[in-house]
Amino acid sequence: MSSTLSDSADGNGWNGDRDALADILAFHLEAGVDVALGEEPVDRFAESLAARGAPASLAAQEPPHMAGGAPSAAASGATAQPARRAPAPANAPAIIAPASPPPPDVAALEAREAAASAPDLDALRALLESFEGCPLKHTATRLVFADGNPAARLMLVGEAPGRDEDIEGKPFVGRSGKLLDRMLAAIGIDRTSAYIANVVPWRPPGNRTPTPQETAICLPFIRRQIELANPDLLVCLGGPSAQTLLGLREGITKARGRWVDYDTGSRTIPALATFHPAYLLRTPLGKRMAWRDMLAIEARMSES
Ligand code: URA
């Protein structure tokens, strides 16, 4: 028997049922909705319709897939009633309704032009903040540009921010970031002597893998970021980063631990792929090989 949170309807026609609420919560978590941005619900569908200049009557209607527990008017044959709608609370976070993003190939072209125009890392970050070509920007909380020392000789690049990074705005601050810090500390490196970024600087919803289109759109920015930071060594954390930046085609287990040349656009530097710390958290057996990679990085760092 399920236990109820309340015996009576709560005014929204909803009899709170603990199991049903748990199911809804689980559904949201699986869909990547794992952070509450505000205290009150805000109808972004109505906002984006309004932003696109839809007539008020249309903007005020419930989107069909969002209609509440009751069957839709169309389905029930009843006369359509405008849905009850709470105005956005004054303290609701300002989320700009996304204008239709350009097609991916146009966005990638715009990204190339924008990235190439950045004279330094601050300008690149500012360009990314105003870049509208990547749809992930509209689902992420904020841009996750970089952490560490941009003047460091070592640069590490992961795949994309996760939940903790999305909240803090810095790469590798969650569980895998803590492991990365321990791996670096083992060879005497911390965030004052390393510069850390991701191929994709916005969190994909639910930590899903970025699509090839999203990666292609973000690629010119990370390439330019590497060129402007101008490290002596580049380390790709995980297969997706290695495949995207180093063009390695084999899986990370084969690709890791081998130095390859990376052309920054200004010069050629040595680059190495190693396991992503998130993989090591799931697969502790990989730590032995990751340790070898860390020693290889340490040796290279002391070469010049
Ligand atoms: N995984 C990544 O690839 N990057 C982060 O910043 C965090 C987790």
From TrEMBL:
Stretches with biased composition (Low complexity): 67-98
Uracil-DNA glycosylase-like domain location: 145-295
GO molecular function: 4 iron, 4 sulfur cluster binding; metal ion binding; uracil DNA N-glycosylase activity
Highest rank taxon of the organism: Bacteria
GO annotation, biological process: DNA repair
Disordered, as annotated region: 56-105
Entry EC number(s): 3.2.2.27
Top enzyme category: hydrolase
Catalytic activity: Hydrolyzes single-stranded DNA or mismatched double-stranded DNA and polynucleotides, releasing free uracil
Keywords: 4Fe-4S, DNA damage, DNA repair, Hydrolase, Iron, Iron-sulfur, Metal-binding
Record family assignment: Belongs to the uracil-DNA glycosylase (UDG) superfamily. Type 4 (UDGa) family.
Protein name: Type-4 uracil-DNA glycosylase
Top-level taxonomy: Bacteria, Pseudomonadati, Pseudomonadota, Alphaproteobacteria, Hyphomicrobiales
